[in-house]
Specification:
The chain is an alpha/beta fold. It is built from 15 helices and 21 strands. It binds nicotinamide-adenine-dinucleotide (NAD).
């Protein structure tokens, strides 16, 4: 069993001065795989002071210097890509094919941001004013467990580009991948104190980070519940904030959608990351007359989805990350049954062929009522709610009848019609006729209680800037 007992502060691995620890299990086999030590408030405080001191010098470095750092981090991560993939599959249970794609995208982000840096508008001049964009300062980053490497890279790359320094509190549940990432960062020989990482719980070290007066901005990715707490903490010192929170995204099948073609996309969105994806299309809105056909196609397609060992190339659905998440999803399934939703497939209990592992049965409910808890709340597991609609206006109302607004999907044979519908959905992102767009670093973020601000490529750089006017 691997022991993770060091933070990364001021360019050094420093032993955590605490006896509190958490044991991580392989979600596929339930074997113990790692123990992570949980830091104290004093260790978080030390990291923040280090980042604040480093900002003074790092913010003055040239763009060429920072481009060079981004390149070096990319190159080092690229060399260890296979190791990073294996660790994500081991400790999170994400399927190998998804992890491979996500790891590559995350690593390549350093090159994309390097490219953006070449043409970034740091200074704009006119006759009587100069407008300057400058790095916001010390950025506190708090991330969840469902796409660890992507979240690390999507914050570190733009922060470095802007000359900011970081204190990161990763999720407790991705300690192995984070450790391998930090070893790459260390070998890339980046200036000491630019990236600091403190392991620990949100309640202890996360709270310190969001309240600390030396932290200028918080980039938080996680649940809406925690986001609200962080919003409150940040208000005490008026920190800049980006909040990337939860979702309950609608997938709308318009009347003319080719059902046989689109159902595999519907499921690949709903069960993306085994359902543990913020953008999962977990509410499926279907014309009433087409419900029976959709049910048949869903059953047919789900039967073909391979569930099991995430290392297997054929696997489409792996386990939940841990027992807690498995239990949460079970509670929602129970609630759906108790509230009278019709169970089309899946349901309570572990997938029968496995004695071990946190495998939830891919589940579909047919729901007559938008007010059901399973329709309104984010489940974060492979549970899809099908909702019939009478008219496209009703479908639109239902799509928008949610506290969230992170993502949405519209399927139609007529792209123009789908586009007109998409424009009316209150959501940060709408995908048309696909579950996975090939767009390069489009903005990402939520409306309503799905968040604040936008990240992604140039948008992440904007999020990490202050804007200053000098007037004549
Ligand atoms: P979570 O909110 O429980 O935890 C996220 C992080 O916050 C963890 O590192 C945790 O330790 C920390 N934390 C907890 N309490 C804290 C506190 N009081 N102060 C500071 N930090 C605290 O979320 P999770 O269960 O790890 O992740 C799943 C959630 O993340 C889902 O809701 C999902 O939709 C969301 N998510 C959103 C996006 C997005 O881009 N919008 C992406 C991925 C995941």
């Amino acid at each position: 069993m691997k022991i993770i007992d060091q933070n990364y502060i001021n360019g050094e691995f420093k032993t955590i001065d605490s006896s509190k620890r958490l044991t991580l299990k392989n979600p596929t086999t339930e074997e113990d795989i790692a123990q992570i030590y949980l830091s104290t408030p004093a260790e978080m405080d030390e990291a923040i002071h280090c980042a604040a001191t480093t900002f003074e010098s790092f913010s003055q470095t040239s763009i060429d210097t920072r481009m060079d750092i981004l390149q070096r981090i990319h190159d080092e991560l690229h060399k260890y890509e296979e190791e990073l993939i294996d660790l994500a599959v081991l400790e999170f249970g994400a399927t190998i094919t998804t992890t491979r794609r996500r790891t590559k995208n995350a690593i390549n982000l350093f090159l994309a941001i390097k490219e953006e840096l070449k043409s970034y508008d740091f200074i704009k001049k006119d006759d009587y004013s100069i407008t300057i964009k400058e790095g916001v300062g010390v950025i506190g980053v708090i991330i969840p467990w469902n796409a660890n490497l992507a979240h690390l890279c999507s914050n570190i790359a733009p922060a470095i580009a802007l000359g900011c320094t970081l204190v990161i509190k990763p999720s407790e549940f991705n300690a192995l991948e984070t450790q391998a990432f930090l070893e790459c960062l260390h070998r890339a020989n980046i200036p000491k104190g630019v990236v600091n990482v403190v392991h620990g719980t949100g309640e202890v070290v996360g709270e310190i980070l969001t309240k600390h007066p030396l932290v200028n901005a918080i980039s938080f990715i996680g649940s809406t519940k925690t986001g609200k707490r962080i919003f409150e903490n940040c208000s005490k010192t008026i920190k800049r904030m980006t909040l990337e929170l939860g979702g309950k995204s609608p997938t709308v099948l318009l009347e003319d959608a080719n059902l046989a073609e689109v159902i595999p996309h519907v499921l690949s969105s709903a069960y993306s990351n085994s359902g543990q994806a913020c953008h999962a299309g977990s509410r499926l809105l279907v014309p009433k007359a087409k419900v029976n056909e959709v049910k048949r196609l869903l059953l047919e397609t789900i039967q073909k989805l391979k569930i099991g060992d995430p290392k297997n190339e054929e696997t489409k659905i792996g386990p939940m990350i841990n027992q807690t998440q498995f239990n949460t999803v079970q509670d929602y399934i129970k609630s759906g049954i108790e509230e009278g939703a019709q169970l089309l497939c899946g349901g309570l209990g572990r997938v029968q062929e496995f004695e071990k592992g946190y495998f939830v049965k891919p589940t579909v409910f047919i729901c007559q009522d938008q007010t059901l808890k399973i329709v309104q709340e984010e489940i974060f597991g492979p549970v899809l709610c099908v909702l019939p609609y009478e008219s496209e206006q009703e479908a639109l109302n239902m799509a928008n009848d949610t506290l969230f607004g992170l993502s949405a999907y519209v399927f139609s044979s007529d792209e123009t019609k789908a586009y007109e519908f998409a424009k009316q959905i209150r959501s940060g992102r709408v995908l048309i006729n696909t579950a996975a767009s090939k767009a390069k670093n489009p903005p990402f973020g939520g409306m309503k209680q799905s968040g604040l601000g936008r990240m992604g490529g140039r948008y992440s750089m904007d999020a990490f800037c202050e804007i200053k006017s000098i007037l004549f």
